[in-house]
């Protein structure tokens, strides 16, 4: 009488093959969440450069400030329009005075301050 099922050696082979596949695939997934967080910080900087910066710059020009952006403008924009922005990870967004702090993923920095002829520009440097 023959029993249906797997032998012990077949089960061991399957377990060894799964172990090899896991050993190959697992290192590829390590660090994926950190890369995603850094990508989020880069997207915030892109939003600053494309939409928020020019609006603040034109507001500053209309107010007679010569295009310079102050801390109150940055704080108002980040709390109102970017409530999910995590300054602990990306750092606080610097303004015309250059004030800002680094985060765990990297640092948002102001490359150029707003002037009468150009909007401000920010960048993100990952750690």
Briefly summarize what is shown:
The chain has helices at 8-29, 32-62, 71-81, 87-90, and strands spanning 106-112, 121-126. By secondary structure, the chain is mostly helical.
Tell me what the structure shows.
- The protein is mostly helical and 127 residues long.
- The protein has 4 helices and 2 strands.
- The chain has helices at residues 8-29, 32-62, 71-81, 87-90; strands at residues 106-112, 121-126.
- Strand 1 (106-112) and strand 2 (121-126) form a beta hairpin.
**Widest sheet, order of strands:** 1-2
Q: Percentage of helical residues?
A: 40-55%
Q: What is the beta-strand fraction?
A: 5-15%
Our count of helices gives 4
How do the SSEs run, as a string of H and E?
HHHHEE
Radius of gyration: 25 Å
Distance between the termini: 66 Å
Q: What coarse outline follows from CA principal-axis ratios?
A: rod-shaped
For the residues shown, what is the average pLDDT? 85
**Tally of strands:** 2
Q: In this structure, how is the largest beta sheet organized?
A: 2 strands, antiparallel
| Low-pLDDT segments, ≥5 res | none
Oligomeric organization of the protein chains: single chain
Number of separate structural domains: 1
Q: What class, by secondary structure content?
A: mainly alpha
